[in-house]
Design a protein that fits this description.
Elements: E1 5-13, E2 18-25, E3 34-36, E4 54-61, E5 64-66, E6 68-72, E7 75-78, E8 85-92, E9 101-103, E10 107-110, H1 112-115, E11 118-119, E12 127-131, E13 143-146, E14 150-152, E15 159-163, H2 166-170, E16 174-177, E17 180-186, E18 189-196, H3 204-222, E19 234-241, E20 245-249, E21 253-259, H4 273-287, H5 314-331, H6 337-353, H7 362-367, H8 389-405, H9 412-424, H10 437-448, H11 453-460, H12 468-472, E22 477-481, E23 488-489, E24 492-497, E25 500-506, H13 511-515, E26 522-526, E27 529-530, H14 536-540, E28 548-555, E29 558-565, E30 567-568, E31 574-578, H15 583-593
Parallel strand pairs: 1-12, 18-19, 19-21
Antiparallel strand pairs: 1-2, 2-8, 3-7, 3-11, 4-5, 4-8, 6-7, 9-10, 10-16, 12-15, 13-16, 14-15, 17-18, 20-21, 22-31, 23-30, 24-25, 25-26, 26-27, 26-28, 28-29
Length: about 600
């Protein structure tokens, strides 16, 4: 196969967490073929240096070793050769997340960005990969799950898979092991659910039915007439662990990690908070199938995975996705209006809790994702705002504004559909162009017929708080503040460190800040009474706002004492409640939430 890049990947030593990869280039560049491993993975905006996991690497041609020179941290060049070149390398895989690779005796998982070297200049060619079974009787029951099309393999089996180009190869993660499997069709398209890990009494039938509703609602949002999904097949891959949460989107699949207790249990019909969170995560990553995997910022079309890609638009691509993930749960009938407004309140209160929102706009937060959002420290609540959380509120506010000012004739749904039609629908079939910040703002005005520059200036490029109480009122949603009788507090967030109470964050302007407490301090005592990992709130409940307390803390190995004046907890406690009257208002809300009978 002269014009095909060929890989094999073998879980060579699961106990040592080692994959072995071979890469064959039939027609290498005459000047010496260059190979590059990505430094980051799309959807996770931090340089991760995947090349650091390459344990050893060598090159050969026709069975004879040839020189392979390392040019920089993730780039190699083979000596000039007029015949095919084969690289062989071992990778250490012990990252139990959705971003890289993990291998042991229980399962194997990898993203292509962390295991497949790119053949520079030949990324456009077809790429095939043979996924091999690890040796030994222990692995005879293992199967393979991936969205890659089979070339010489049965579905879910070991064998050879094919990708149209390098981008599709690395955008198709692989799970291997003994997993639970179910399949459903959403508007005619097969969707697989793969659950790896021990999950007693997993109610796969309920999960299948619920995800089908979410997927069909999202397909219908973007293609209301044709109900045509943008992929031929989709795979939800979930690793269930004792405690975990995360997801990463791909063009025809998603990799997820969750607590096994978040998954539904046979015979239990109520919607637990954990299960709702898991469904929201699935909804979020599935929405990315349109919004960021096909509708992309211009800087991501195409990706440059060697270095950072800066954009001010993550508030749209992550924030709007965060808005729609829970909205799709209520539109699918999986949660009711009351549950949905509790989720909105949780997001609003979380954003208002940190003073960083007054210093950084969501456009700036998007641009600084590489250095700030993905590298958070103890001062982050006082310095940054989340483009996920506040971005979702921007999406909510725009939706409410558009619906109110056009009297229901237009909505954010119309904007998303237009973005899809112009930038996303044919992305992988054509040359694929991305959307710029100027494009976005102009498109909003065009689709809605409104002039929204002032909104963007204040809430996207500016740092003003979004007036959600006012925006929700026309939809019959009442806002209430529950801070009237709040208990005194220190203005800190703590974490458990064994049985110790460790200060994780000190909120700017709070009693602890004014007293001199710092993140990392271990709280030992309040007025001579011992503080443990679990009793801080109980101790503080015996005081009132304005009382002075003496705090003893360990900072490193030094015992220190501070006097703090307690104040009422400034943590926001907004609540939003839907009202049933007047009828016209309730109808407007039902049209927005998709709850009309």
């Amino acid at each position: 196969m002269k014009n095909t890049i060929q890989y094999t990947i073998l879980p060579k030593d699961p106990a040592a967490h080692l994959f072995e990869v071979t890469l064959t280039v039939p027609a290498p560049a005459a000047e010496g073929q260059v190979f590059v491993l990505p430094a980051w993975i799309p959807g996770s905006y931090m340089i991760r240096e995947f090349a650091r996991n390459i344990v050893r690497i060598s090159a050969a041609s026709q069975g004879k070793a040839i020189a392979l020179n390392k040019l920089d941290k993730h780039t190699w060049q083979a000596e000039p050769c007029d015949r095919s070149i084969t690289l062989t390398y071992e990778l250490y895989a012990w990252d139990l997340s959705v971003r890289a690779a993990h291998l042991d005796q229980t399962h194997g998982f990898f993203n292509g960005t962390s295991v497949f070297l790119a053949v520079q200049g030949k990324e456009h060619l077809p790429h095939v990969v043979e996924i091999q079974r690890p040796a030994g009787d222990l692995y005879q029951a293992w199967r393979v799950a991936t969205a890659l099309p089979e070339l010489k393999a049965k579905r879910y089996g070991f064998g050879t898979y094919i990708a149209a180009d390098y981008d599709e190869l690395i955008d198709s993660p692989v799970e291997m092991g003994t997993f639970e499997l179910a399949t459903f069709k959403a508007h005619g398209v097969p969707h697989d659910i793969v659950i790896t890990g021990r999950v007693p009494n997993l109610d796969m039938a309920r999960l299948t039915a619920d995800l089908k509703k979410v997927c069909e609602a999202q397909i219908a949002l973007f293609e209301p007439a044709s109900r045509r999904a943008p992929m031929k097949r989709y795979v939800f891959m979930t690793l269930a662990v004792g405690d975990g949460y995360g997801g990463l989107e791909h063009r025809a699949s998603t990799a997820l990690i969750c607590s096994r207790n978040d998954l539904p249990v046979k015979g239990q019909k109520e919607m637990s908070e954990g299960y709702r969170t898991y469904l929201g995560l699935c909804s979020h990553e599935y929405f990315h199938t349109w919004n960021v995997k096909r509708i992309k910022p211009d800087v991501f079309a195409p990706y440059d995975l060697r270095t950072e890609g800066y954009t001010t638009l993550l508030w749209l691509f992550e924030g709007f996705t965060s808005y729609y993930d829970d909205l799709m749960l209520v539109r699918s009938g999986l949660i009711d209006e009351a549950a949905y407004f509790k989720l909105i309140a949780k997001t609003v209160n979380g954003v208002l809790r940190g003073s960083g929102r007054t210093k950084q706009s969501v456009a700036e937060s998007s641009f600084d994702a590489w250095t700030k959002y993905y590298r958070q420290d103890e001062n982050s609540p006082n310095a940054i705002v989340s483009y996920y959380a506040k971005g979702s509120l921007v999406g909510l506010a725009l939706d409410l504004t558009i619906r109110a000012e056009t009297r229901g004739r237009k909505s954010l749904d119309d904007v998303m559909r237009t973005l899809w039609q112009r930038y996303g629908r044919e992305f992988y079939e054509g040359e694929g162009i991305g959307v710029s910040e100027a494009d976005v703002e102009a498109l909003f005005d065009e689709v809605t017929g409104l002039k929204l520059k002032r909104f963007f200036d204040r809430y996207v490029r500016g740092t003003e708080d979004i007036p959600l109480a006012r925006l929700l009122a026309p939809f019959g949603v009442e806002a209430a503040d529950g801070r009237k009788n709040q208990k005194p507090a220190l203005g800190i967030r703590t974490s458990k460190d064994g049985n110790d109470c460790k200060v994780a964050n000190v909120y700017e302007g709070g009693p602890a800040h004014e007293a001199g407490i710092s993140a990392g301090d271990i709280l030992i005592a309040i007025d001579g009474l011992r503080v443990s990992a679990t009793n801080l709130e109980a101790l503080l409940s015996r005081y009132k706002s304005g009382d002075d307390v003496v705090l003893h803390v360990f900072r490193r190995d030094e015992l220190m004492a501070f006097t703090a004046t307690l104040a009422s907890d400034e943590a926001p406690q907004l609540a939003f409640t839907p009202q049933s009257k007047p009828a016209a208002v309730a109808r407007a809300r039902a049209a927005w939430l998709g709850t009309a009978g």
